[in-house]
Amino acid sequence: MSRIRKGDQVVVISGRDKGRSGTVLQVAGEQVVVEGINRVKRHTRPNPQAGKQGGIIEKEMPLPSSKVALFNAAAKKADRVGYKRLADGKKVRFFKSNGEMLDA
């Protein structure tokens, strides 16, 4: 079970985009792709056989999951995440600051 999952609201806690927030688009191992964060310009060649047009495209690149934290809407700030087992044996994530559960 991962602390950060696809669709979570996160805040960047270090680096060039510190303080910006967005939605997780993809999680790949220890890397996450966040909507509108860590954007780079990529120079691409045209490929007529594949129907791709050349030029400069902007896209989001992955960044380490240690550089992002989940956004706690109740506290309106970034928060740490822990795990709990419920009485029925289900494992859920919760915010460390106020104990609010994420996956209930």
Largest sheet: 6 strands, antiparallel
The level of helicity is under 10%
Return residue spans where pLDDT drops below 50 for at least 5 consecutive residues.
none
- Overall average residue pLDDT: 93
Round the Cα radius of gyration to an integer and report it.
17 Å
Strand content: over 45%
| Coarse morphology | elongated
Question: With helices defined by DSSP (H or I, 4 residues minimum), what is the helix count?
Answer: 0
What's the CATH class of the domain at 9-74, please? Mainly Beta
Question: CATH topology of the domain at 9-74, which one?
Answer: SH3 type barrels
Structural features, described:
With 104 residues, the protein is mainly beta. The chain has a domain at 9-74: Roll (SH3 type barrels), CATH 2.30.30. It has strands at 9-12, 21-28, 31-34, 39-44, 55-60, 63-64, 68-72, 77-79, 81-85, 91-95. The model has no long low-confidence stretch (mean pLDDT 93).
Sequence-ordered SSE layout with sheet pairings:
Elements: E1 9-12, E2 21-28, E3 31-34, E4 39-44, E5 55-60, E6 63-64, E7 68-72, E8 77-79, E9 81-85, E10 91-95
Antiparallel strand pairs: 1-2, 1-7, 2-3, 3-6, 4-5, 7-8, 9-10
Question: Which key features would you list for this structure?
Answer:
104 residues, mainly beta, SH3 type barrels, two-stranded antiparallel ribbon, 10 strands, 46% strand, elongated
